[in-house]
Structure to design on (212 residues):
């Protein structure tokens, strides 16, 4: 498919896909703090933990293994202390329109190609048994994690592969598109009649002063 398989000695670079990296799930509203003096856990809001003690505190953090792809640029990946990656999940959990699953190859083609042009929040990864992807997958640009560069190098065996040159170039552009995109309310230039028609599908759209 769109993957290639580097040697273990090859340096980490953008587009490298790792598996079983730890993603932490921590709520700042309920931080499980370990009170050593009491040998007990106590949940507290993070602001209270910080205000009560400035030194490092011991907390219990839930972690789960996830696949992820390097988004740090190649030059930075060679020397930065931290490498940034984006989580990879099943495509039907990244793209809402795929939740029910198209039933034919033609419908999948339409979904993958058209939504890729409209939705800048993900990057599509096809299934490939060599990568451990038994289903269609997607890179979620909204979910990032950071790993020490030295740690990735020490556990290079977790690297399953990387994007081939064509996919890597597309991936690089998709990252740029996502992080430089300009957020705006798309209904702002509509006249009153057009806005009314728009609100039939998007009732949360609030009119601007020039549309009232």
């Amino acid at each position: 498919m769109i993957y290639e398989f580097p040697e273990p000695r090859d340096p980490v670079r953008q587009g490298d896909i790792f598996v079983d990296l730890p993603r932490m799930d921590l709520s700042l509203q309920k931080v499980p703090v370990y009170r050593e003096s009491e040998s007990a856990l106590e949940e507290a809001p993070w602001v209270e933990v910080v205000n009560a003690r400035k030194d490092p505190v011991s907390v219990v953090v839930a972690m789960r293994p996830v696949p992820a792809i390097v988004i740090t640029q190649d030059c930075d990946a060679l020397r930065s202390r931290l490498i940034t990656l984006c989580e990879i999940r099943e495509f039907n959990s990244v793209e809402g329109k795929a939740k029910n699953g198209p039933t034919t190859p033609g419908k999948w083609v339409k979904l993958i190609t058209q939504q890729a042009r409209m939705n800048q929040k993900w990057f599509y990864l096809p299934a490939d048994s060599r990568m451990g992807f038994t289903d269609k997958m997607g890179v979620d640009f909204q979910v990032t994690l950071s790993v020490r560069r030295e740690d990735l190098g020490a556990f290079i065996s977790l690297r399953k592969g990387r994007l081939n040159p064509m996919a890597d170039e597309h991936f690089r552009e998709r990252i740029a598109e996502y992080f430089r995109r300009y957020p705006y309310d798309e209904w702002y230039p509509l006249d009153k009649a057009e806005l009314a028609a728009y609100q039939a599908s998007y009732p949360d759209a609030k009119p601007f002063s020039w549309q009232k």
Notes: The mean pLDDT is 91.
